[in-house]
Amino acid sequence: MGVFNKIRSKFHDDWCSKCYTPMREVNRKLFMLPMMVGHYVSHDKAEYYKKNLVPVEKKADIPTGMYACGVIVYHCSDCSNHVVKLSIFLPVRNQEQYEDAYLFEHGELDDFLKEQGILF
Ligand SMILES: [Zn+2]
User: Fold this and answer.
1) 36 alpha-carbon distance from chain centroid
2) CA of 95 to the centre of ligand 1 (A)
3) What's the gap in Å between 92 CA and the centre of ligand 1?
4) pLDDT tens digits for the chain (120 residues)?
5) So where are the chain's domains?
6) Measured between alpha carbons, how far is 117 from 114 in angstroms, rounded to an integer?
7) What is the Å distance from ligand 1's center to 109 Cα?
């Protein structure tokens, strides 16, 4: 079963849940999430993202009306824990309309992130 946590607190999502210390951002990458505006459905399982995320170079590569997903990898130097944050948003002109954010704290996305070259 996939373990996930909806963001607990806007201000502490990059804190290590074991040590309660701020973690260091080690990598980030932008993906396209193939869902059109008006047809957004929340998904909280890592499997969905592994199957559907499409890597893009920049926001402009995402077709209008299509969702984006920012992936950030955080690392805790105290306990070597790492956490992956997904932020799903709709790029609207120069703004980002946030829909959902998820933290994966138990390596659920690791194989995918290694394939994508953002986790080593
Ligand atoms: Zn830690």
Assistant:
1) 18
2) 33
3) 36
4) 334 444 444 456 678 888 888 899 999 999 999 999 999 999 999 999 999 999 999 999 999 999 999 999 999 999 998 999 999 999 988 899 999 999 998 999 999 999 999 998
5) 27-108
6) 5
7) 18
Cα 43 to averaged position of ligand 1 atoms, centre (Å): 27
Three-class SS of the chain: CCCCEECCCCCCCCECCCCCCECEEEEEEEEEEEEECCCCCCCCCHHHHHHHCEECCCHHHCCCCEEEEEEEEEECCCCCCEEEEEEEEEEECCEEEEEEEEEECCCCCHHHHHHCCCCC
Tell me how far apart the alpha carbons of residues 68 and 89 are, in angstroms, rounded to a whole number: 5
| Ion ligand 1 — residues with CB < 5 Å | 16, 18-19, 76, 78-79, 81
Separation of 82 CA from ligand 1 center, angstroms?
8
Tokens coding 85 = 């944050």
pTM of the model: 0.85
